[in-house]
Protein 1
Amino acid sequence: MRDFFGPEVGPGVVLVFDEYLFANDPDFNDFRAFQDWRKQTGARYKYLLRSEHRVALQIV
């Protein structure tokens, strides 16, 4: 995910995930991929909106 996002994803950017906590493959979902990216980059974030499976979050 780090290579996918690139340097454009930084403070102020809003990301929307439609299957953040749900995936057919339990070993891969948006939450896990985002958390892996966050750990690699040290990025911080806050949740803006949440629903059952979808989230919008902002990089701070």
Note: Helices lie at 2-5, 30-41.
Protein 2
Amino acid sequence: MLKILKQGEARLNVIEYEGVVFLRVSHGGFNLSEVAPHIDAMYIETTDEDVINGLVSKVRESNKVSEYLMPVFASSIAMKPALETVVDGFVRNMDFFQAARQTREIQERIGQIKYSEVGDENYDDYVLKTLSFLFSRNQALMPFRKRNSSTGYAYPFLCNLDHADGFSQLEYINTAVQDGLLNTTLVDKVNHCPHCSDTFLHFRESCSSCGSIDLKYEDLIHHFKCAHVAPLSDFVQGDKLCCPKCDNELRHIGIDYDKPSEITVCNTCNHQSQETNMTVHCMGCGKESSLSELNTHDVNSFEITEKGIVRAINGKKTQVITKHKQVSSNVIEWDLFKLYLRQETKRAQLSGSPAAMVSIRLNAEALWELSTHESGVLQHEVLNILSSYIRPTDLVAARNIFDYQIIVTMGSTEYVEELKHVVEVNLIKLIKDNLQIESCSVEVFSEELGGNANMAIV
């Protein structure tokens, strides 16, 4: 059921459809923070593309999650290719069924986000806004062709976020790719000027002798009878073609002659050649370049990763303490660890002396948010803790940031059980203190080496 209501002193139009409330606007004369708590989505009723972009920007520029992630729809009478990636959808003939369904889906995903506001000062804030938008829409960040963009493409959400253009628009996004928050898919490749980075380029042929672009093109004529080859103009005599070498008339192509190729004649220096130079004239800065001087830029779509989803839901990444001491000598590389494990297993089987392998698994969603550098720092700290609680004859290695294993040589059952307890308590404390989180778990279990035991290497 569709209800059209009036709300507040400003007499804002509010459309309610099956419990979903749409703010009906055609201009920006309203306070978003005042109306946002009372609506679920926005419906823009105008055909003016600039007004639509302005209203969407007004929403996306907000720092409040409930506002910048708000679903925005436009009337189908304004449907244009350039707007299809700006708004969440179009409403046809005041039928809000699809818009209401889409709004409920978006609001359900927004409800999973654990923070209410972001800043607008740095990389983390910019990327968090982008990640939360992609998560709430369950879609990729797609480029669309934009003639007045210096790169020839633009990303609507980013345009509405900060009004940046060109390669600067993707500075933070490319960093997010390096941090594992986004994946890329190649959409196109564009050439751009080496002087100003503009992609509005004019490709033109020029004389290989003097560089002039004033060229004309002629067919080459090959006379079968005498094998003479020359430009067409050399054969023209009035309205006939006559060979300048043997004076015979050429009547029929394919019988008397053919046209094997084309020749370029420069109107400036009269140089004739079958090869020309290709030059590039930038319509942005006006400078000339050769093809080899052009820079090439990949145009990608960006899809949020599992790590990016965790960041989108939980908020800003936490910092890991970077101060650490040197890892001891009983910390070894993973491949070497597997070799020692096989040797220790055989030794235990032959000697019958006790030996065990202790496996540790860290469970914390915040670990997925760490950059490559931060993961390395945390892994170093974990290895420091593990090495400080084992004997010099024991060995420890990290398979990845989550999984660690210890070879306990000549260790009693009591020693192994005590080691497991100490490791669990101290690693939980390390993760909670360094990542500033309240909930995490550490799984620690052991396996006897030798006998019929299996090596738990995965």
Note: The longest helix spans residues 413-435.
Protein 3
Amino acid sequence: MDEAALNAITDTDALRALVREQMARIAPQQEVIVQRELTIARRDHEIACKTAKIDKLTHELARLRRVQFSARSERMNPVQRELFDEAMAADIAAVEAELEALQDCASAPSARPPRAKPVSRPLSPELPREITVHTPEQCDCATCGTALTRNGTHASEKLAVKPPVFFVRRDEYPQRACPQCKTTVAEPVAPALIDGGQTAPGLLAQAVIQKYADHLPLYRQEAIFARHGITLSRSTLAEWLGHVGRRLQPLVDALRAKLLTVEVLHADEPLVAQLDPGAGKTKRAYLFAYAGHGGPSGASAGGAGAARRPDPPPIVIFDYCPTRAGRHAADFLGPWQGALMVDDHGGYEALFAHGITELGCWAHARRKFFDAHQAGYEGAGRRAAAIMSLFVTAKVNGIDPHARLSDVLTRLPTTKDRDIECLLPLA
């Protein structure tokens, strides 16, 4: 209705009816406007809250990164710093993920910059695969009813893990008897590493690896076993470690004898902490470390005209000592004469005065050796040094310590002393 037609109306009732009609039309529109205003206010409030949270997370992320790379963390003990670094890295990753999610929600879809698709490294082909085939239930085309044919396969791989599986290994020895001669024939029972024990070599290797390679205390191992329904006390685990350490000592002695045939050795004496039960605190001990290659090198063997032989495998030996005195190095090296590379520790001076050649290091940096577990007496320290010597030597030769130790503990009871070198962890 235009303005002229509206001015021509003189009937009051007609005007009232027209107003009511317009009010009826306007009321729904006003309701829509009110709802939109409430929605806008609610979104403004959400944006304000998310913006405040983004600012808080940004500040927290900056603080974590500042703490992670601050000079204070550099002054911390490296082993302690690793514990904090792991937790801090997890915190930073969590904050970054939450911050990214909030920023995605706060920004409009058109304003979001295109994100690069993350590139994942392929999983190792040596890992075993468990393949699950997800075949479509539909066999015919939903449009025309034609039978569907295979047109390739799309595959996705995810790294998975299974918890340790405990089982009982039962060895049976059937007996055969001669009814005429009254004799019985049976296979002899294989000797065990622990007489009368119910522990297979694989479980012994697992406990030893977790203790000396993964630095997992026995009380934690006890809790892990209990979580899987296996009751193993700390005293039992400690007895296992004692038996294994004693039985592995001949291998360490053979490894030391092979190490002392080389011409050049590297030595260092890292400080370790040893529990002192009587004093209720820790005391200082030292883990002398000697490294070299187990035999004369291919270049020096046989002269210049001889064919070059492969380089001998590396060997690392740890020697637990209660002090840093030079006599400990003299006792370990014995009559050995060669070149010894060390730092500026004065304890080696007596060795250099009796025929051993000193090799100085221009830029000596203390290497990270495996830290000995805190022990309550020197025997435990020596056992740790012996077992770690085998572990580290296996590692530098590219050998899996767990598989190797399981094999050694299986073969050791039947191996003659003259054949002990066949068990050494050398490539």
Note: Residues 297-301, 363-376 have pLDDT under 50 and may be disordered.
Protein 4
Amino acid sequence: MARLLFYVFRESGHVSPTIKLARALAAAGHELRFLVTADWAPVINARGFEAQIFMESVYPAGTEARWRSMSPTARAEDAERRRQGRMDFFLRGAMDPVLTGAGADLILADVCHYSAPMIARRHGLRLAHYSTTMLQARAPGIPPLSSGIPWRAGDPASAAAADDAWAELLAEREAARARDPYLDSYVRYVEAMADAYAYPRALYSWEAAIVPDFPEVPQLVLCPSALDYPRATPPRREVDVPSIEPRDDHLEGALAGVGEARPLVYCALGSQVAWRPAYRAVYDLILAAAARMAWVDFVISVGPDWVDRYREVAPANAIVVDHAPQHALLRRARAMIGSAGLGSVKECASFGVPMLLIPGPEGYDPPGNAARARFRGVARVLPREALGVDALVEGIEALLGGAHDEAARALQREVAAVEAGIDDAVARVERLISGE
């Protein structure tokens, strides 16, 4: 059996999708370790896997807990210092002995680790990328995953708007190349890494939505293709890799009876809310909408930092929690309000729950996730500039009225078929191990 190293990115939305595949690979007899920063080792250990800690000089244990106690300005400054430290760590080659010393037959690296193919090529390591987003590489007439523009299949105007969105994205990247100092630009940092590792420019492309694309590197896409726009799958990409880990969580205490006598609306804006104070205004509006809909039960997950504040002002029909048993709530919910992070979008699709999506201004994939969910007919999308109590009430009422139920059930069946294919996913990884 093979030794596998999962080289994960340090966010919940990047770690959680790997667990189902990791469990199946372990059950097939393979030896697994997860390469993580120190704060994430307990998370990996709690899932039953061995964690290998790296980059402790940049992200020592307790870094993320200290961020929670900082003001937003102080936290941003500290995060920037550590970002610079991380770039220095890679540019001076400190990652090389970590990966070469792992003794892995195959390294499975998150696509956000764009240095991994460069290091692997230098040292002859076998590596594949995995993506916790939908496909990011450019496809003709398909909007970037970072764009929320509306799109219709077979519509020339939609295709032209998509191409314009790509042109705008690439122009922004080109502008970033001109900024100084040298390492403050993401684009220049990637190119500095490529120069340091003599990685040919022809082997990577900036025509990708969020991170550079490496067309020659095999990639597992941990997402049902049914969530994406209809598009061709690029070579060396394996779509429809199961990624929704079953959780046998339950509704207990104050949550035990929610949704039994009244329809339940569940709200969670993602694992990053602690770092994004602008979300407080969104929670304020959601609570105001709940106060106008006394015939509906609301469960609102706000994270540990804000829970006391919102419990004090919540109406009687809204329960505010710091953390929610999401699968248990989705089994009972009629609708979910979210920020279009892909983890929650996938889970809503898995449980057949329609969504009211409020993608944030941070970029990355939520705008594209929301637009694609709307295209499939399973979501209504509220841009931040259109957000208000009236719009929230109108959107919730439309979901509870059943306008999206049929589409949600159809998508649920497609997602279930993908998630049942875990044995095939193991076989795909085993082909990568053997070099096929």
Note: The two ends are 16 Å apart (CA to CA).
